[in-house]
Amino acid sequence: MRWYFAIDEAGGLSGTGALARLMVLSARAIGGLEPVLLYHGARNEFTAWMEHHGVRVLSIEPRFLGMFTRAQAAGTFTPHSLGHWLRLEIPAMEHEHEFVLYTDCDIIFLRGFDLSKLRPKVFAAAPEMLPDNWNYFNSGVMLLNVPAMRATYPALEEQLSFRINSGNFIRYNDQFALNEAYRGLWDRLDPLFNYKPYWPFSRHAAILHLHGPKPENLEAMVSGNWHGTDQTALFFSKMLNACARNYIDWCTWLGDYLQTVDFHEALRFTRLASALIRHQRKTPASADLSFMNIKLFEDSH
Length: 301
Known about the structure:
It is a single chain. The protein has helices spanning about 10, 15-30, 45-50, 65-75, 80-85, 90-95, 145-165, 175-180, 215-220, 230-255, 265-280, and strands at about 1-10, 35-40, 55-60, 100-105, 105-110, 125, 135-145, 185-190, 205-210. It is an alpha/beta fold. The protein has two domains: about 1-195, Spore Coat Polysaccharide Biosynthesis Protein SpsA, Chain A (Alpha-Beta Complex), CATH 3.90.550; about 210-290, no CATH class.
């Protein structure tokens, strides 16, 4: 299956780029995927590494970049990550396959899978934070119906232009845009294909999405170097306290699984699991997950 992911130059040189490398190595381990990277920026060691590992790198100039630049200069919009927005270019780039897989860069492929029987009307996606909350989807893993996405792109572009130029959505992001534009039109993807490390461990999971705190965030939290006071930092702390056991189980398992994929990362997750155990012993756990039951819309999909 053809598989797309996307990143910009800054992302490739950051921790996101390191996660993308691990993701590619895990994809090679399970087989069956044809990787294509949509990339914006100057070619460098990151893109050379990708090509060396069998990834086709396509340099693109996103159609919406001018609109973003003007809105940012006017102070009405701040793109969280240009790399995430690049996924919207897939329908314009893909002309060979009707259905393709898209993932963010912070995922790990755990086992081989076959999505050939799933034929979404536009795309299929799984829930954001809790596996039974279908109010809105997480766009980190999507099975795309390329012709349908291409046909609906003008309407999406019109919505993007309206929201970004309105000045009322300075933190407007691509996931919100997709949820708003395709509300009621998307199909459900089994959460096993967008599994989260704060959910209970499951050997049936096919794709693990390191959604929420990344490994470096967890390392900072358990080492006492997590001093953020913004909304995201506080939310991540609550996630760890509520789901510490699940993080421990997943990090322990990844420490074993990744030994034949990326030994350095395997050691990292093993050390993180030990640190999480020590952290759990001295930090009161919370069983309250209600703060993760977020809804964007009044009714569920």
